Amino acid sequence: MGIKKIAFLILLFFIGSCSRKTDYKPTVKLDSILKNEKLKKDYAEFRFDNVYLVLRMEKKQSFVKFSREASIDDLVLMTECEKPIVRCFAFKVLAERNYSKIRELLFRHRNDNEYLDVYHPPCVRVNEMVKVYMLQQLDPFSNCKMKFSRVEYDRIFADFFR
């Protein structure tokens, strides 16, 4: 086998392995999610008080209210939203509510490479990938019953960037 054929096969292998990891594609527009008037009202009140993702927002009254009012089905649908911040808000609520299929949702977003700003009061802003924010909601120190052990968390984190 000639060197040109070997180089060609290596190139094909490289292209093939790169093409398997595709970015996450949102499937739902925010407008269609908010056709439900009750959800639209609850979401608007929540977002008025929570313009950004903020560290420890689960302690805010608006978050608690939204978490209590939104249905699991609506929240799962919101994790498919075109807006990365909406996906993260919904995932955060599902984690806080100990949604039994939260890990499946996380793995669905393993290639969700969109960035968004997360604020750490009083003045630090971190630009994070959606998949990293979601994974952090299940870190070993979270309150979620579906959280990962340290070993699992480290393995999944590494896998997300292969």
Automatic annotation (TrEMBL):
- Can you name the source organism? Flavobacterium chungbukense
Its recorded name reads Lipoprotein
- Give the highest taxon in the source lineage: Bacteria
Classification of source organism: Bacteria, Pseudomonadati, Bacteroidota, Flavobacteriia, Flavobacteriales
